[in-house]
Amino acid sequence: MQYTKVDSDAFEQLQLNAGILVSSFTPDTATVGDILGATTGGINFTATPSFTDFGEDVDNVPNGMKEFKKLDYYDVHMTGTFLTCTPALAKMLVGAADISQTTKIVPRNDLLAADFTELWWVGDYSDKNTGTSAGYIAIHLLNALNTSGFQIQSTKNGKGQLSFDFQGHYSLDAQDTVPFEIYVKAGTTSS
Fold first, then answer.
1. DSSP assignment, residue 55?
2. Residue 64 belongs to a domain
3. What is the pLDDT at residue 190?
4. Residue 5 maps to a domain
5. pTM
């Protein structure tokens, strides 16, 4: 059974539970901002790179040569389903919208810079995941905008579910900044 073993510290490196979606997170202090809402089914994050192979039409050069490969961009998505909703969250889910009279969400036909927001997913990480020195995995989605539109699925005797697909976007102000960051911090024993 030589190849069916795991590292002795594998259970110290597990991401646990569904995590939370928050408006802000400070990695240095592990301070979370407002929780956006309760979710169901977990959160899915994908950052799919798109490449160009400049060697694909060069004679005597096989496709897939690393020296001819160029990374064009990342297609970044955070998807899932909310169970709870506030006016602020409904505005985020519509995408291009304003809140009027504290309860009315008014969609717009134009996007504003303010429609793009910062979004964080933070999940428990490591075997030490309680207290002030808890471990975490955090994903920071930059310039996030829900690109799937406002969707709600209600049921006869159940909870309404609001699907989302927040997409991270590049910005003209920082064109080389990829629209996501990942933080991994192992927990330590509290003193």
1. T
2. yes
3. 65
4. no
5. 0.91
Taking the alpha carbons at both ends of the chain, their separation in whole angstroms is: 40
Q: What averages of pLDDT result for each successive group of 10 residues across the chain (191 residues)?
A: 81 87 95 95 97 90 89 97 96 96 94 96 88 90 97 93 98 96 88 52
| CB distance 43 to 78 below 8 Å | yes
| Structural domains counted in the chain | 1
Look up residue 165 and give its two tokens. 């697909």
Task: Identify whether 171 is part of a domain.
Answer: yes
135 part of a folded domain = yes
Cβ–Cβ under 8 Å, residues 70 and 52: yes
Sorted by sequence, the CB contacts under 8 Å of residue 54 that are 6+ apart come out as: 68, 69, 70
Structure tokens that stand for 10 in this block: 């594998």
Residues ≥6 apart with Cβ < 8 Å to 162 = 81, 82, 83, 85, 89, 93, 150, 151, 152, 153
Q: Which domain holds residue 65?
A: 10-185
What value, to the nearest 5°, has the Cα angle with vertex 168 and ends 164 and 171?
Answer: 145
Name the residue among 190, 185, 61 with its Cα closest to residue 135: 185
